[in-house]
Amino acid sequence: MARVSRRRRAYWAGFIVPAILGMADARSAAQAAETVAQRPGHCAVASMETILRFYGEEDPLLSQRCLGLMHNARAAEYTDRKRLKPFGHYYPTFTAAYQPILAEMLLDRGYAAVSTRTSVSKDGQTISERVVQILVEHLVSGHWAVLHVPGHYMAITGYDRQTRTIWFNDPWRPQHPFTVGLADFINPKRSWHTNRGGEPRAAWDGRVLIFWKPQTDEERMLNATDRCPACGEFFPETAYTYCRRCRTFIDRRQDAHVQRGLDLIALSTQGFDQTNVSRERMLALRDELQNTNPISETAWREALANYPLAPLGAEGIVTLYRAAPALGIRPDELSTAELEQIVTSGEGWYALLAEL
Ligand SMILES: [Zn+2]
C-alpha cells in the first residue's frame, strides 16, 4: 500500500469524514448568519463580528467598534515591529486594516487562525492552488472566514459541499446573505458580486482570514510561535513573516503582553475619539487584569509609549516613541506614572511633555 503522509491523510479526512457523517448541509435563510452592518470603513471588523456572533460569541468587546479601536491601537506598534510605512489613520477614521493584526487579535482571544496573503498568479488568471486547498479544507470543517476583495472585506459563513456553493455576508448590504459557486469564487477574472450601487466588485484575491475556536490539543497548537498554521512547518531561524509554501501568516511573538496593553488603553477611551483615554478607566481595567492575567511592567510601559497620541498635524499616527527623538526625550527615562499621564492627557500631551 502506498505510504500516505500524516498531512495528506488529515487533508482527505477533512472531506471523507464529514461526507459520511452528514449529507447535504444546504442552509435555509433562517439558518443564515445575521450580517453586522458596517460603520464607514469598518468592513473588516464588521465581517469579523458577523462570524464571531454566528459562532455564538457574546463578548461586547468583540463588537466592530471595539475591534476597530484595538486594531488602530495596535497599528503603530505593528508597523514599527514590521518596519512598514507608518499607519496613517486615527480611529474612527479607518480606511485600511492590517490582516495580520486582525489575526493576532483573534489569537490573543483563544481563537485559531489561518490568514493568507494575496495569492493571484503573475498573469492574474489564477489563485494559488495551495491557498484554495486551505480554504476548502476549512470550509468543509465549518470554519468561516473574513474574505478580502480589492477595497473591501466580507464574511464567508457557509459552504454546501454537494453544490459546492459558498455563502457570504456583505457588511455594506446587510439585508440578506449571498451565494457564489466555488468555481466562480476562485476565478480572479470573474466578478461574482456587486456593490450597493450595482457596480461589479473585483473578485477574491486569495487573501482570507479563517478562524475558529480550537477543539483539540492539535488545533490549539496550530498557531504556536514560528509555526505555519497550515502545513505545520517550523521557521525558527528565518525572518519570514509568512510560510512561503502556504502564504499564511506566522505568529512570531514570544508573548502578547504589549498588544494586550494596547487593547486595554484603547478600551478605556470615551466616545469615538481614540485619543480621549480615561485615566480612571484605564487604571481600573489594569487593576482588574493584574489579578487574573497580568501585563508585565515592561510590557505596560511599551504599550503606553506605543499608544497613538492626539495628532499635531497631518502626519501619520504619533506615539511617544515616534515623537521622542525630535523632542530630545527618552521614553525609558520617564516614570510609568508620567507615561500614563501623557497617554491620558488628550490634546494636552505635547505641552505636558515640555514640562516633564
Ligand atoms: Zn506552510
3D architecture notes:
The chain is of the alpha+beta class and 356 residues long. It folds into 2 domains: 6-220, Cathepsin B, Chain A (Alpha-Beta Complex); 257-355, no CATH class. Helices cover 37% and strands 9% of the residues. The chain is built from 13 helices and 6 strands. It has helices at 6-21, 43-54, 64-81, 99-107, 129-140, 182-185, 217-220, 257-266, 279-292, 297-306, 320-327, 336-343, 349-355; strands at residues 112-116, 145-149, 152-160, 165-169, 178-181, 208-212. The chain has a 6-stranded antiparallel beta sheet with strand order 1-6-2-3-4-5, with helices on both faces. Helix 2 packs across helix 3 (64-81), helix 3 crosses helix 8 and helix 10 runs parallel beside helix 12 (336-343). The protein is globular. Zinc ion binds at residues 228, 230-231, 233, 243, 245-246, 248.
Which features does this protein show?
binds zinc ion, disordered N terminus, alpha+beta, 9% strand, 13 helices, Cathepsin B, Chain A, 356 residues, globular, single chain, 37% helix, 2 domains
The gist of it:
This protein is of the alpha+beta class and 356 residues long. A hairpin with a 4-residue loop joins β3 (152-160) and β4 (165-169). It has helices at residues 6-21, 43-54, 64-81, 99-107, 129-140, 182-185, 217-220, 257-266, 279-292, 297-306, 320-327, 336-343, 349-355, and strands at 112-116, 145-149, 152-160, 165-169, 178-181, 208-212.
Reported CATH architecture of the largest domain: Alpha-Beta Complex
Bound molecules: zinc ion
The count of β-strands is 6
How many domains, in number, for the residues? 2
Outline the low-pLDDT stretches: 1-24
CA radius of gyration is 22 Å
Specify the oligomeric state: single chain
Largest beta sheet: what is the strand line-up?
A: 1-6-2-3-4-5
Which structural class matches the secondary elements?
alpha+beta
CATH class of the largest domain: Alpha Beta
Q: Mind describing the biggest β-sheet?
A: 6 strands, antiparallel
Order of helices and strands: HHHHEHEEEEHEHHHHHHH
User: How many distinct helices?
Assistant: 13
- Write the CATH fold name of the largest domain: Cathepsin B, Chain A
What percentage of amino acids are in beta strands? 5-15%
Distance between the termini: 75 Å
> Helix coverage percent of residues?
25-40%
Shape: globular
Please, what is the average pLDDT?
A: 89
